[in-house]
Amino acid sequence: MENDSTVKKGAVIFLIAIILCGHAFAQRAVEVSLRFSRQETAVRVVFESDEDTIRNASVTANPASVRLEFPSRVDLKIQSDFPFELIRKDKVVVMNLRDVTDVRAYRLTAPARIVVDMKTVAQAPKEPRKPEQKPLQQQTGQTAQKPQEPSAARPAEQPQAGEKGKKVKTVMIDAGHGGYDSGIISADAKEKDVNLSLAKDLYNALAKKGYSVLMTRKVDQPSSLTERINFSGSKNHEVFISIHASSSERFAVYTATGDEQGADAVKLFSTASRQNRHLAKSRNLARVLADALRADFGAEIVQRELPLPILSNMNATAVMIDYPSVRAYAADVKLREKFVNAVVKGIAGHEQ
User: Fold this and answer.
1) Helix, strand, or coil here: 261?
2) pLDDT tens digits for range 243-268
3) CA 273, chain centre distance (Å)
4) CA dist., res. 345 & res. 349, Å (int)
5) CATH superfamily of the domain spanning 170-348
6) pLDDT tens across 209-253, in order?
7) What torsion, rounded to 10 degrees, do the Cα atoms 77, 83, 84, 87 define?
8) Are 168 and 350 in contact (CB under 8 A)?
9) Which of 49, 208, 250, 337 could form a disulfide with 53 if both were Cys (CB 3.0 to 4.6 A apart)?
C-alpha cells in the first residue's frame, strides 16, 4: 500500500511539474529585434522576428504613433540611440512619433520583418545674421519710402473677382495602400481592401452622375507613392481624392500645407508649388466634404493641413479623407454606401 501511495504521489508531482513547465513555456517571450536607419528627411524602423510572430502581428500606423500587437509576449532587443519614445507591455509595443508627416508599414520576408517608413520634417538651416544697416535717411539725407507690404486680403490662388466657378467634370480616386502594404489591419479586415472597395463604389456613383472618373489602382497591387504621383500627373483631372482609414474614431479631411512664409517643411518636397496654385480650391473642397460628412453622419470632422507628399505634389484640387473604422466599413455595406453618398454630395457642391 505504501508503495502504491508513493507511486501516486510521484505521478501527481510529475503531472504538476509538466503543467508548470508547459505554462512557463507558453509564457516564454519571443525575441524581437528593433533597429532603425535615418536620412535627412526619412526614418526606417524594422521589427525582425520569426515568421509566425511577424505574420500574426497587427500594426496600426499614423503620423502620431505606431502600435504593434504581437501574438505572444515579446522580448524587445533595441538598437542604441533609438529616436522615438517606446511604450512596452507584454504583447504590445507603441512608438510615439514626433516630427513625422507621413508613415506606412508593411511586411517583408526572408527574413521576416515589419518595416515602418516615415517622412520627417527637417530643420531648416539658420540664416546668417545680416549686419545692421542704418536707415536710408541717415545714409543719404533723404526720406526713405515705406516698402509696400504684400496684401493678405486675397491669396494669389483665389479666383479673380467676377470669375465664375465651374462644376467639376473629372475626378481621380486614390485607394490608399495595396499589395504588400496592407495599411491598418484589424482582426478580420485590411485597410487596403476597404480602401479599394470604397474607391470602386465611389467610382461607380460618380460615373452614374456623369463624371469622368480615374483610379490610381483598380486591383490589389503595390503602388508606390512615386508611381501614384507620376500616374496622376500624366492624366488630366480637376479633383484628386485619396481614401484612407483613420486610427481614431473620427473622420478626417486633409489638405496640403501651403508654401507660405514660415512653412519651410513643405519645401522639402520640392514640387509643392504645384499644389500652391490649387490650394484655395483644395481648402474649399475639404470644407464642403467635411460639411457633407458632418450632415450625413452627425459626427465630428477633423480638418487639418499637413505636408503630405501625395497632396503636395498634385497639380489639381486635392484632399485626403480618412474614415474612422476599418472593421466597421469592411462589414457594413450600408455604412460604405452612406460614406460614398456624402463624398458625391461634397464634390457636387464644389466649384472649381
Assistant:
1) coil
2) 999 888 899 999 998 754 434 444 44
3) 21
4) 6
5) Zn-dependent exopeptidases (3.40.630.40)
6) 999 999 999 999 988 888 898 899 889 999 999 999 988 889 999
7) 30
8) yes
9) 49
Locate CATH 2.60.40.3500 in the chain: 30-120
What is 43-92 written as a DSSP string? EEEEEE--HHHHHT-EEEEETTEEEEE-SS-EEEEE-TT--SEEEEETTE
3-state helix, strand, coil in the chain (%, to 5): 35, 30, 40
Estimate to the nearest angstrom the gap between the alpha carbon of 17 and the chain centroid. Answer: 50
The answer to whether 206 and 171 have CB atoms below 8 angstroms apart is yes
Phi, psi of 9, rounded to the nearest 5 degrees: -60, -40
pLDDT in tens, 308-343: 889 988 999 999 999 998 999 999 999 999 999 999
According to DSSP, residue 315 is labeled S
Per-position DSSP letters for 136-188, written without gaps between them: HHHHHSSPPPPPPPPP-SS-TTSPPTTPPP-B--EEEEEE--BTTB--SB-SS
Instruction: With H, G, I as helix, E, B as strand and everything else as coil, classify residue 338.
Output: helix
Nearest to 91 by CA among 116, 68, 115: 68
Residue 56 corresponds to which cell in the numbers above? 500574426
pTM over 0.70: no
In this structure, whether the domain defined by 30-120 belongs to CATH 3.20.20.150 is answered with no
Q: Do 121 and 41 touch, CB atoms closer than 8 A?
A: yes
